[in-house]
Design brief:
141 residues; mainly alpha; 3 strands
Amino acid sequence: QHRAAHAPQLSIVHHPPASPDAMVDLARNHDVGLAQEIMDVPNRRLCLTNKAFTYILAGLAVAMTDTPGQHALGQDLGHGAALVAPGDVDALAGVLSAWAADPATLDCARRTAWHAAVRRWHWEHDAERGTLYRLAESALA
């Protein structure tokens, strides 16, 4: 009843599980990815999740919780992302409403996110190549 009164055009569709290798292609059919995290779990405060990278590689605008782990990515994505304070449902709704009301702004956000993924946020970037190996090597030395 609440959804019908406040978001009459919203529909929620549950999709069956799919292969991790298919996620970027499956996400491309959508406009916005939600990288919302809870602050109660220490790992979720600090990490960058696969979903955030999947969304930008698929060219989606991203609504992200402003956690210590996601803050730098959200800042780097610029107009491609909206950083929202943890638990601020009104701010999240405002971001989604703004993108829904202005297709040109949403298109700009999607293109900006995708360009950031191509420019920097991918595993083949020089800053990432071999990083895990070097960290493990120095930890074991």
